[in-house]
């Protein structure tokens, strides 16, 4: 009865460690989640595990206890590594557990760029002080620091740290190319990096450090999730994007994004109404009631033909607005841009 309770939460976690038998760990994870009635997504690799699962609070509590008792994670994974938020099994359509080459898809062989070469971890308190100092210096045009958002453009669009540099990229696998094409931007700079839960910074900071252009590279331990637990009204404004059916969770009342159609303040994502499309769109209730529910004119007006797989499942394709977006934009940053937080 407790496992089936509607009162639940979502757990986000990762653990970098040596996994000698990913297939066995994957099968164990799948069986454990099924027994606890958990849904979500879990990636297992020889470099560790990365998961987001939802269920009742009793089930997620048991899941944490079992994970901490697993020999593979002993003395590596701890209670503080699990980030929780209100939700449950309903936040995910199903349970997906698989073996991959990377536990976070950056597209670089973990043997070439290892999480072991990561940047310096800062606690939420330390990161808060660094951002405070950075914003003070940036307002005077004296900062030699870059506050770097490692997430995708649609994530930073609805919430980010004040004064951050948010790359206009669609996937984390574009991040290495973004760094390569903007190396001069980071030369001799102190870089403060952050992401949702910390995992993208592990590989992202290692990649940036491998280029040997920065003075120092730091990252927010536990990501935005942990920062908001300590500083719900701190320097992060807006919502925190999450990769499940909630799309976002909030800790403050700020709305920093706008409706795609009328420009009114709005930050609640919905899927594009065109059946073939995989994009998210910000459309306010007023515009939505007018039928403006697609991500671009092509999806809205022409209703592109649905392409189906042999199995009958709809094949999600990239639409015109996605194809037009530069794969890896070249950033041009000015003190004014940093000061306004754009």
TrEMBL record:
Entries under InterPro entries matching the protein: Rhodanese-like_dom (IPR001763), Rhodanese-like_dom_sf (IPR036873), Rhodanese_C (IPR022111), TrhO (IPR020936), TRHO_N (IPR040503)
Gene that this sequence comes from: Tstd2
Rhodanese domain boundaries: 141-236
Name of protein: Thiosulfate sulfurtransferase/rhodanese-like domain-containing protein 2
């Amino acid at each position: 009865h407790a496992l089936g309770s509607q009162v639940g939460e979502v757990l986000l976690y990762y653990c970098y460690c040596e996994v000698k038998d990913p297939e066995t760990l994957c099968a164990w994870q799948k069986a454990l989640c099924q027994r606890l009635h958990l849904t979500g997504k879990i990636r297992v690799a020889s470099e560790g595990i990365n998961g987001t699962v939802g269920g009742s609070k009793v089930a997620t509590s048991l899941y944490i206890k079992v994970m901490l008792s697993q020999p593979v994670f002993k003395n590596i994974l701890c209670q503080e590594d699990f980030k929780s938020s209100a939700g449950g099994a309903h936040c995910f359509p199903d349970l997906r557990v698989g073996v991959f080459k990377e536990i976070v898809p950056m597209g670089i062989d973990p043997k070439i760029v290892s999480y072991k070469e990561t940047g310096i971890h800062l606690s939420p308190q330390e990161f808060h002080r660094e951002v405070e100092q950075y914003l003070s210096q940036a307002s005077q045009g004296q900062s030699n620091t870059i506050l770097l958002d490692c997430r995708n453009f649609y994530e930073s669009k609805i919430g980010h740290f004040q004064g951050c540099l948010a790359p206009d990229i669609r996937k984390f696998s574009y991040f290495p190319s973004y760094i390569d094409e903007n190396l001069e931007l980071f030369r001799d700079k102190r870089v403060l990096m952050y992401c949702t839960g910390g995992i993208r910074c592990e590989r992202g900071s290692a990649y940036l450090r491998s280029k040997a252009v920065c003075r120092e590279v730091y990252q927010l331990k536990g990501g935005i999730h942990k920062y908001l637990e300590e500083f719900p009204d701190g320097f992060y404004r807006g919502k925190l994007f999450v990769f499940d059916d909630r799309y976002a969770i909030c800790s403050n009342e700020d709305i920093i994004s706008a409706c795609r159609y009328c420009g009114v303040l709005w930050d609640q994502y919905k899927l594009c109404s065109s059946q073939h499309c995989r994009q998210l769109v910000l459309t306010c209730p007023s515009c939505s009631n007018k039928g403006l529910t697609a991500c671009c004119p092509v999806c809205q007006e022409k209703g592109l033909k649905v392409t189906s797989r042999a199995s009958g499942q709809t094949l999600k394709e990239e639409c015109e607005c996605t194809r037009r977006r530069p794969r890896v934009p070249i950033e041009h940053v000015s003190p004014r841009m940093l000061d306004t937080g754009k």
